[in-house]
UniProtKB/TrEMBL annotation, chain A:
<feature type="domain" description="Aldehyde dehydrogenase">
    <location>
        <begin position="31"/>
        <end position="491"/>
    </location>
</feature>
<keyword id="KW-0560">Oxidoreductase</keyword>
<dbReference type="Pfam" id="PF00171">
    <property type="entry name" value="Aldedh"/>
</dbReference>
<comment type="similarity">
    <text>Belongs to the aldehyde dehydrogenase family.</text>
</comment>
<dbReference type="InterPro" id="IPR015590">
    <property type="entry name" value="Aldehyde_DH_dom"/>
</dbReference>
<dbReference type="InterPro" id="IPR029510">
    <property type="entry name" value="Ald_DH_CS_GLU"/>
</dbReference>
<dbReference type="InterPro" id="IPR016163">
    <property type="entry name" value="Ald_DH_C"/>
</dbReference>
<dbReference type="InterPro" id="IPR016161">
    <property type="entry name" value="Ald_DH/histidinol_DH"/>
</dbReference>
<feature type="active site">
    <location>
        <position position="268"/>
    </location>
</feature>
UniProtKB/TrEMBL annotation, chain B:
<dbReference type="InterPro" id="IPR015590">
    <property type="entry name" value="Aldehyde_DH_dom"/>
</dbReference>
<feature type="domain" description="Aldehyde dehydrogenase">
    <location>
        <begin position="34"/>
        <end position="492"/>
    </location>
</feature>
<dbReference type="InterPro" id="IPR016162">
    <property type="entry name" value="Ald_DH_N"/>
</dbReference>
<protein>
    <recommendedName>
        <fullName>Aldehyde dehydrogenase domain-containing protein</fullName>
    </recommendedName>
</protein>
<dbReference type="GO" id="GO:0004030">
    <property type="term" value="F:aldehyde dehydrogenase [NAD(P)+] activity"/>
</dbReference>
<dbReference type="InterPro" id="IPR029510">
    <property type="entry name" value="Ald_DH_CS_GLU"/>
</dbReference>
<dbReference type="Pfam" id="PF00171">
    <property type="entry name" value="Aldedh"/>
</dbReference>
<dbReference type="InterPro" id="IPR016161">
    <property type="entry name" value="Ald_DH/histidinol_DH"/>
</dbReference>
<feature type="active site">
    <location>
        <position position="269"/>
    </location>
</feature>
């Protein structure tokens, strides 16, 4: 017996009925959680409950791991040819593409992002699933020359049961990033969506079944981090865990893996990415990109360009135009045709961001724009720009994860690179310059897993993404992602060597 | 001012004088450790002190990291072209080859393995490994990735920075080569902690590294204890990657420490309890020779030792007879005697540990088919030991003994033996003996291990990856795969025309 969510959308941008099971999805079936407790799914525009869904527990994780293990041993893994795995992933992508608007609407309602932005998420999710569908069966082992009395080769085998823990900022897209490479390489999955934004993941569970994935290949368990997340990180039968979220929790995941069965760990963590604008940048384009860098997705992006360094020659003009552009962003209901920005995802996040804004004020930075709530209900925060900061201020050092940018003037090239790299993070960085030397050399000197030149927050399924330093371990997207879901086995066939 | 070790070898297999500094090697110089204390280096043939070397401390690690960081930022990393890094590695290999007898002698004296094995296996593999990775320098290619024509997207395979490396005592020099090779080829700088039990070849290498022309600070060698120097490396905020080879127990601590501090990348090569499965249709004499090599080579002190020997019932009796005769024929003796196969175990601690496992086998009711006792009155020799009549849950069947102790287990059913073989938390290696092409390959493919040997065992090559499934480790050493562990992937997106 499972909960069902029925909802009628009647909005300017989307009208339609949705109805789908929201239970714990294990072994192809939706059920209650082992305790029968539920989780309230909250609408961030007004703090009201959208629906209640079953809460998964550590026992449900155990049940899921068993189902995933059985599926791996019997109907998935190398028992299901790469071409077949690829076909299923393609089918899933097609089904998602057919239901594009429905998924966008659910995402917008659950997360609070504007419908247009959610549509973008769905597009990337479709592309990501299709991209990895194409990789299935193509992670080639090697045949390695040693001597003619040996055949030595490697197999790139699936690992087995993989645990995946995803965040609330791009719920569906993060699911696609995780499922794609894991399924393409033949692993089975126990995935925990964020309890703050579970709805598109639960809708995907039905799609996964509809696409024809065998029962147990993908199991979706929505529960809390300290119960379900911890259970996944500690589970003795889960051989690999992939986590996207805060650096703080990432540490706990890695510690738990070390203490239990030394499962392989990949992490996508926080960032405080620099965006460096030189005098010779194309100013009109830079302003638009910089706005996109920090205000896209309400600043709730791990790679947000939150530290904006502007060379003194263009500082005043940049700040003027950047401020005007930021002030012009329309905050509003996610389903209004002209909204750019909806509310932050939750009360907790709202409070956290406001607390950082207050710390900026208290530590003496100038609120150049915004710095306050918008409206009376829901969690909207106005696009905020701080100036006159000092390097050690919390708003300059720590990840805020909201629509709050700091703009910092610089003069010297070597010095700004040093400042940009002076952080424990290393997820991304952006450089704006029309000079080919300056642009490329700066990008190469920045300690970050992604360096954007004359753009920011641009991701593609085929280009790897991941952190240097405390921003993470491992890479997602691109061919590189396959390595994280592969066990390399070397086989030595002795043809004639005797002792 | 540093300690120096001088020694005159006068043995049947090697005669010669060695003399080299044994201080803490940081920034191209040997010095005392920060506390001035020393570590006794023990000769395992008699328990006596060979020499005292400087003990490195947490402060010395910090000093080493600073030096390594400076070298990385100024004279190494991508400031030093791949072709040049490769040249230095080749030079190091050449110098090692020129001095191979000396190194083999030092290794035999320090570790207790025989001179002939040290020369044939450890030196051969070390030289080959340096040359192999010397050839890879500059060849870890990034990708250029098609997106649209208004973008240039490419990846760089950058060195990570300062890498910490912690190596064990069973193959001291070889483990150093496996670690330095890929790290230096890809442009990283290194702070490496050899085992305090067997530091001498590593310290000799430090001089060779200087002689080869590596800039100061590129390789720093700090000999100290696990709970001080090892921990300091795992916890250091400026070390961006740690590679550890050793026990699963300590591997966990290294990974936890990395998680608690700066989330440095971690690769681990840990323990094993590798199965060696011999089918009725195996070539019996070859299987016997290989099986002895699988468990008795290096005195059983190998992470991938074939310590659980599963023999199909059709050949069990004949195998056991021949295997026992072979084991019994292995000559235990001084590492420098011309006809020794096996020297002492590396230390008193290891000796006690192995004897304790042998006793547990007796107590839990297994049959001592051969050996099971000390050899001689001084030093740490243990006789090649074979247990039979075991049960799966016995400690000698489940746990890694790391000594010349094998368990021989009869089996009948193919599917069942694969299940038994995989029924372990470990997954480092496995071996299959069969002449049937289907049986051999299908079994190898079904074994949950990072290396599967068919009709051989304990055969490693610099070009073939090595590493563990499950709790035997994370990541791969050797082969092209090793480069990935020492590389940071950076994606660069050059926007040529996309506007928003």
């Amino acid at each position: 017996m499972s909960t069902i969510w029925d909802h009628e959308f009647d909005t300017p941008v989307f009208k339609g009925k949705v109805s789908f099971p929201t239970g714990i999805f294990i072994n192809g079936k939706f059920t209650e959680g082992s305790t029968g407790n539920t989780i309230d799914v909250i609408n961030p525009t007004n703090g009201k409950v959208i629906t209640k869904i079953p809460e998964a527990t550590a026992d449900d994780v155990d049940r899921a791991a068993k189902a995933a293990h059985k599926a791996f041993d019997t109907v998935w893994g190398l028992k299901c040819p790469g071409s077949e795995r690829g076909k299923l992933l393609s089918k899933l992508a097609d089904l998602l593409e057919e239901k594009w608007d429905e998924f966008a609407a659910i995402e917008a309602l659950d997360n609070g992002k504007a419908f247009w932005s959610a549509k973008g998420d769905v597009g990337i999710s479709v592309d990501t699933l299709k991209y990895f569908a194409g990789w299935a069966g193509k992670s080639h082992g090697k045949v390695i020359e040693t001597t003619e009395d040996k055949l030595a080769y490697t197999r790139h085998e699936p690992i087995g049961v993989c645990g995946q823990i995803i965040p609330w900022n791009f719920p569906l897209m993060m699911m696609a990033w995780k499922l794609g490479p894991a399924l393409a390489t033949g692993n089975t999955i126990v995935i925990k969506p964020s309890e703050a934004t579970p709805l598109t993941a639960l809708r995907m569970a039905s799609l996964i079944k509809e696409a024809g994935f065998p029962d147990g290949v993908v199991n979706v368990v929505v529960g809390y981090g300290n119960t379900v997340g911890a259970a996944i990180a500690e589970h003795m039968q889960i051989e690999k865990v992939a986590f996207t979220g805060s650096t703080l929790v990432g540490r706990k995941i890695m510690e738990a893996a070390a203490r239990t069965n030394l499962k392989n760990v990949t992490l996508e963590l926080g960032g405080k990415s620099p965006n460096i604008i030189f005098n010779d940048a194309d100013l009109g384009k830079v302003v638009n990109w910089s706005v996109h860098g920090i205000f896209f997705n309400h600043g709730q992006a791990c790679c947000a360009g939150s530290r904006i360094y502007v060379q003194s020659g263009v500082y005043d003009e940049f700040l003027r135009r950047f401020t005007a552009r930021a002030a012009s962003l329309r905050l509003g209901d996610p389903f209004s045709a002209d909204s750019y920005q909806g509310p932050q995802v939750s009360r907790i996040q709202f409070d956290r961001i406001m607390s950082y804004i207050n710390s900026g004020k208290e530590q003496g930075a100038t609120v150049h724009l915004g710095g306050e709530r918008q409206g009376e209900e829901g969690y909207w925060i106005k696009p905020t720009i701080f100036t006159d900061t000092k390097p050690n201020m919390r708003i300059v050092q720590e990840e805020i994860f909201g629509p709050v940018g700091v703009v910092i003037k610089f003069e010297d090239e070597a010095d700004v690179i040093r400042q940009a790299n002076d952080t424990v993070y290393g997820l991304a960085a952006a450089v704006f310059s029309q000079d080919i030397n300056r642009a490329i050399e700066t990008a190469h000197k920045l300690h970050a897993g992604t360096a954007w030149i004359n753009c920011v927050n641009q991701l593609h399924p085929q280009v790897p993404f991941g952190g240097y330093k405390q921003s993470g371990i491992g890479r997602e997207l691109g061919e590189y992602a396959l390595d994280s879901y592969t066990n390399v086995k070397a086989v030595h066939v002795n043809l004639g060597h005797n002792l």
